[in-house]
């Protein structure tokens, strides 16, 4: 059962038992794509190892990825190892493309988190870890780059435990260090594995544990048995009585602990997340085969994890889906990509049932029917036509018309809706304009397609300035999108300087805003009357609308127009024209006219009421605050901290890391433009930094006055 064809002939339960849907996630430069490349090589999916520096990796297929040496878009592929079908998604490590990680983890059953043996737990490491926590994804840790100068397996293991709060348990110890790193000690089998870096085809050579590692291996083995026993009563019994478990018993215990500790249900005794830790040096072809074994042995199958919560689209009643080929079809569309030959590719994760080309299904999110064209199995940007997809599969569909990221596709007779994917808000904006008017239509098409692909990319037209405003997760994100417009859509644009995506909100409730829109200009007039209440809402809640209209004071058919007016008004705040967020609006009174009332009249009334309410709610501006991690030599630490302070930064901690220090600070994004140049100058090129969004905070009054001096955004 080593081929796709053989698996198709098995029963659903057997096939799913030998299926692993997993992702590779990491901080940028941890060696994630290099590790993925080795996985593809050893599984036979590719026959030559590609390298990032040479721009030859198979999963980083975009021109921008190969030129810059970074992953930009998540790439899916299928390969086989032992008896297992591995559906792998390689995700970006740069924070600007965190949405790719978010939607991948939403549909995956497990993941491998790659850590740099030198950098340890870095900012994006924490971000992807929290994302995995959010979806209850069981995971393995792979400490990579142990051949590098300054690498420290024990240090990274400690950081995973302390900074991520995991019960990180070593399954391997490194054999050698830095340039002498040649293999690992397997604590499950209690033998060494030596790798031939110059001959990647050669399997690792198993042997006795080197004498110099015998004592460390004995202690680490004891720690492993103790940790696993805490999650398995039978192994605890053996541990208490000093009885050695069999290899099969130990593997089963590790697997159970890995899966169950991620899926703790409410009311159950909370235990730390159990994370098996492996190690290697992917660039030198050390550690990939044991990692593949661990994916098969310890990560869950689709049968081991619960299908995401779902409900009936009409009744909102809970619906249970079953991982079974014969069950009603249900799947989640988690990604849309553009292909120059077939058009839009819709990536879907099938949770139950079977789907074939030509069949009609229901988009339950939008309550519209869709007909399936082709079904494709993907290898990055390469495609293989397949005749069906079944429970547990990840594949791409062609021919859908009105599907967006997060929509649920299902059997017409058994409608079901899965919870939508939540994406972070953009923090940077940029004005663009076409170089010639002839390109205006092409620009609209390009922006529309890019928005379909990327839920964190927003576009709006500023009526006051006449500019098209792009919003994204960072400077690099917007730079890549502008470059894609040029390369893929043949649209040349002039772009402005990136700006901070400020927000506006209120700090005080407004109990009553009474606004009546009444005009009579001959013939039929306009009449809309609303009474609303505004209240500050929790962070990241956006603008919420609640209708408490009773007794027909406003007919039901006009309430959606009120909501539409409030949402439209919230796009432009009164202080500087930035979007309004974190406000709860309640419609609780009003009146109407039998003849003159209309949807447009109530929409206008809602817009004006909202504007008045925001002004009365003590409005303030909010700015994005970034987590900034700086790794610096101790000799220049004082200068680095002083510079962060001058940027309104607040230093949270300084952590020793060998001969360097890790400085963690919270700094407003507005103060971080040009920081790469500044830190090079301060440290003579010896310091490095990374940052990611943390939260929004109120802008200090003196700075806010400068931003609002003109009344509106320039």
Structure summary:
The protein is of the alpha+beta class and 714 residues long. It is 28% helix and 31% strand.
Describe the model:
- This protein is an alpha+beta fold and 714 residues long.
- It folds into five domains: 295 residues, Rossmann fold, CATH 3.40.50; 109 residues, Elongation Factor Tu (Ef-tu), domain 3, CATH 2.40.30.10; 73 residues, 2-Layer Sandwich (Alpha-Beta Plaits); 114 residues, 2-Layer Sandwich (Ribosomal Protein S5, domain 2); 87 residues, Alpha-Beta Plaits.
- Strand 36 and strand 37 form a beta hairpin.
- Helix 5 runs parallel beside helix 6 and helix 8 crosses helix 9.
- It is globular.
- The protein starts with a helix and ends in a 7-residue tail after the last helix.
- The N terminus and C terminus are likely disordered.
């Amino acid at each position: 059962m080593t081929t796709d064809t053989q698996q198709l002939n098995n029963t659903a339960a057997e096939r799913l038992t030998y299926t692993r849907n997993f992702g590779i996630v990491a901080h940028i430069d941890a060696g994630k794509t290099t590790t993925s490349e080795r996985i593809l090589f050893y599984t036979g999916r590719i026959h030559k190892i590609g390298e990032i520096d040479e721009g030859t990796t198979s999963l980083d297929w975009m021109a921008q990825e190969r030129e810059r040496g970074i992953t930009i878009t998540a790439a899916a592929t299928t390969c086989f190892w032992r008896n297992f079908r591995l559906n792998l998604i390689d995700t970006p490590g740069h924070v600007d493309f965190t949405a790719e990680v978010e939607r991948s983890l939403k549909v995956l059953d497990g993941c491998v988190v790659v850590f740099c043996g030198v950098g340890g737990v870095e900012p994006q490491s924490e971000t992807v870890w929290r994302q995995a926590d959010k979806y209850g994804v069981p995971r393995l840790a792979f400490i990579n780059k142990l051949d590098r100068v300054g690498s420290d397996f024990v240090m990274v293991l400690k950081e995973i435990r302390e900074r991520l709060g995991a019960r990180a348990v070593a399954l391997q110890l490194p054999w050698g260090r830095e340039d002498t790193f040649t293999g690992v000690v397997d604590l499950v089998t209690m033998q060494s594995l030596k790798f031939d870096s110059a001959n990647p085809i050669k399997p690792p050579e198993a042997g006795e544990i080197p004498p110099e590692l015998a004592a460390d291996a004995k202690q680490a083995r004891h720690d492993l048995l103790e940790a696993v026993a805490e999650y398995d009563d039978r192994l605890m019994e053996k541990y208490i009585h000093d009885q050695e478990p069999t290899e099969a018993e130990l593997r089963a215990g590790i697997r159970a602990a890995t899966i169950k500790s991620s899926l703790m249900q409410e009311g159950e005794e909370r235990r730390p997340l159990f994370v098996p830790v492996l190690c290697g040096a992917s660039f030198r072809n050390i550690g990939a085969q044991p990692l593949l074994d661990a994916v098969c042995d310890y990560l869950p199958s689709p049968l081991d994890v619960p299908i995401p919560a779902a409900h009936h689209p009409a009744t909102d009643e809970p619906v249970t889906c079953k991982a079974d080929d014969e069950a009603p079809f249900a799947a989640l569309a988690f990604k849309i990509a553009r292909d120059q030959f077939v058009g839009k590719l819709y990536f879907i994760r099938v949770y139950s049932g079977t789907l074939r080309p030509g069949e009609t299904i229901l988009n339950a999110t939008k309550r519209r029917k869709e007909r399936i064209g082709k079904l494709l199995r993907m290898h990055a940007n390469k495609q293989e036509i397949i005749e069906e997809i079944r429970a547990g599969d990840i594949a791409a569909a062609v021919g859908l018309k009105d599907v967006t990221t997060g929509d649920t596709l299902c059997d017409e007779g058994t409608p079901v809706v899965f919870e939508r994917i939540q994406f972070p808000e953009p923090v940077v904006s940029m004005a663009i304009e076409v170089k010639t008017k002839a390109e205006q239509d092409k620009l609209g098409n390009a922006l529309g397609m890019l928005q379909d692909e990327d839920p964190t990319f927003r576009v709006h037209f500023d009526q006051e300035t006449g500019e098209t405003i792009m919003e994204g997760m960072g400077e690099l994100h917007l730079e890549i999108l502008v470059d894609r417009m040029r390369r893929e859509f043949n649209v040349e644009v002039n772009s402005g300087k990136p700006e901070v995506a400020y927000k506006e909100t209120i700090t005080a409730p407004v109990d009553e805003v009474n606004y009546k829109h009444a005009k009579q200009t001959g013939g039929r007039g306009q009449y809309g009357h609303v009474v609303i209440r505004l209240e500050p809402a929790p962070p990241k809640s956006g603008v919420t609308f609640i209708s408490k209209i009773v007794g027909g004071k406003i007919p039901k058919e006009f309430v959606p127009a009120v909501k539409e007016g409030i949402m439209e008004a919230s796009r432009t705040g009164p202080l500087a024209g930035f979007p309004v967020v974190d406000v709860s609006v309640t419609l609780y009174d009003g009146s109407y006219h039998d003849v003159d009332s209309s949807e447009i009249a109530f929409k206008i009334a809602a817009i004006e009421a909202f504007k008045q309410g925001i002004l009365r709610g003590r409005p303030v501006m909010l700015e994005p605050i970034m987590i900034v991690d700086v790794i610096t030599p101790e000799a220049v630490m004082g200068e680095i901290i002083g510079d962060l302070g001058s940027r309104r930064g607040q230093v949270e901690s300084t952590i020793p890391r060998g001969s360097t220090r890790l400085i963690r600070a919270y700094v407003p994004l507005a103060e971080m433009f040009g920081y790469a140049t500044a830190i090079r100058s301060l440290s003579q090129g010896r310091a490095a930094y990374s940052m990611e969004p943390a939260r929004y905070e109120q802008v200090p009054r003196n700075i806010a006055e400068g931003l609002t001096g003109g009344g509106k955004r320039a």
